[in-house]
Design goal:
Blueprint lengths: L1 E6 L2 E4 L4 E9 L6 E7 L6 E7 L4 E3 L7 E6 L4 E6 L8 E9 L2 E4 L3 E6 L1
Parallel strand pairs: 2-11
Antiparallel strand pairs: 1-3, 3-8, 4-5, 4-9, 5-6, 7-8, 9-10, 9-11
Length: 115
């Protein structure tokens, strides 16, 4: 089992910044990749950014150039630095981890961007 705990969400004005953190614990040695997803009201959950154990990253087109995913292996933590936030970034952000055929999720953290 892998446990994921997100933090860092909140309310910010358009153009502002937030940094989300996701701390992993449990059976983390075999995690293949970690990612951030988001789900806005009435919409499907979508991938925001992902990072593999080798450090390869990929981003949704809507956040490229504004968001950066990174990881601190010593702290078993993944971060999402979000800059130039827009109202359309408002959503619950979830941390996800993939280990083999299993996927794990955190409880989510709310990000609200006011116009």
């Amino acid at each position: 089992q892998v446990q994921l705990v997100e933090s860092g969400g909140g309310l910010v004005q358009t153009g502002g910044s937030l940094r989300l953190s996701c701390a992993a614990s449990g059976s983390i040695l075999s995690i293949d990749a970690m990612a951030w997803y988001r789900q806005a009201p009435g919409k499907k959950r979508e991938l925001v950014a992902a990072i593999t154990t080798g450090g390869n990253t990929n981003y949704a087109d809507s956040v490229k150039g504004r968001f950066t995913i990174s990881r601190d292996n010593a702290k078993n933590t993944v971060y999402l630095q979000m800059n130039s936030l827009r109202p359309e970034d408002t959503a619950v952000y979830y941390c996800g981890a993939r280990r083999g055929a299993s996927n794990y999720w955190g409880q989510g953290t709310q990000v609200t961007v006011s116009s």
